[in-house]
Backbone:
């Protein structure tokens, strides 16, 4: 069976809980992984732990010029990216009336523009090679209107879902798939620090599986989607929410 050995992956938001879990998992499958983030210390620690297949990369995904410049540097040093995981994101729980135009633009630029800039940059090379995988980390918020998440976050993730569909349609004939993973309530600072204790207790009562999600469980879905055997799955958004939303 075709493996992922020596495929080049780029994971944005690699300093975060979920990003680090995805990096570990892809390296375990044989990939070299470019770990992009705006926070450097966790990247250096991960590189120290995982060895020379884990390559730290400082990159603000919302900056289109930085994305283009970094892409050129990556091409010169390592070649084209085969697997792109758009994971970088920030949360705001502010609903519409509390959301300023500045906050709206910040959420959109990091959560949605970033995924577009990166996808745009790497898709041509994937199409030319006849193989590629794009995975976008979406959110249950896009379907529910945001149970606790705010309006800008929810809308950015809705955009990410539509971006996934559009990329999937554009790339399908070239051996390139674009899919999304739609988690809810992973054990990360978004849940442990940005929700009140009362909100957490209510969610634990409402989630049928009875607990929050582990980052490794989401990384496992990413693994499945980037597998060579998943080439017939494209434009799919896989829910991972412990039964909180059934459809
Ligand atoms: N935690 C959850 O319950 C949950 C649920 C649904 C979806 N998600 C999504 O999962 C993804 C990962 O989030 P997480 O929970 O691991 O949070 P996290 O805060 O641990 O990680 C997010 C990472 O993105 C990085 N980042 C922020 N702005 C950036 C920028 N401009 N350029 C590059 N990197 C940037 C941060 O530095 C951080 O390391 C996000 O897209 C988030 O929306 C999380």
Residues:
């Amino acid at each position: 069976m075709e493996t992922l050995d020596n495929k080049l992956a780029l994971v944005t938001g690699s300093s975060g809980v979920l990003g680090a879990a995805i990096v570990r998992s892809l390296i375990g499958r044989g990939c070299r992984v470019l770990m992009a983030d705006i926070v450097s210390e966790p990247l250096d620690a991960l590189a120290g732990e995982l060895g020379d297949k884990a390559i730290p990369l400082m990159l603000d995904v919302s900056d289109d010029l930085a994305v283009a410049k970094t892409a050129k540097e990556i091409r010169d040093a390592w070649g084209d990216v085969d697997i792109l995981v758009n994971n970088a994101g920030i949360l705001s729980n502010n609903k519409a009336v509390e959301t300023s135009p500045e906050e709206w633009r910040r959420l959109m630029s990091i959560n949605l523009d970033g995924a577009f800039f990166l996808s745009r940059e790497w898709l041509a090379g994937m199409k030319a090679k006849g193989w590629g995988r794009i995975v976008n980390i979406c959110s249950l918020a896009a379907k529910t209107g945001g149970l606790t998440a705010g309006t800008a976050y929810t809308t950015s993730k809705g955009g990410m879902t539509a971006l996934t569909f559009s990329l999937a349609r554009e790339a399908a004939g070239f051996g390139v798939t674009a899919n999304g993973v739609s988690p809810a309530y992973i054990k990360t600072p978004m849940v442990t620090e940005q929700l009140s204790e009362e909100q957490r207790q209510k969610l634990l009562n409402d989630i049928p599986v009875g607990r929050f999600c582990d980052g490794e469980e989401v990384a496992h879905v990413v693994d499945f989607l980037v597998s060579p055997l998943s080439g017939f799955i494209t434009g799919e958004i896989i829910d991972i929410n412990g039964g909180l939303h059934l459809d």
Q: What stands out?
A: Residues 141 and 147 are 7 Å apart (CA to CA). The chain is about 45% helix and 15% strand. The first strand starts at residue 8 and ends at 12.
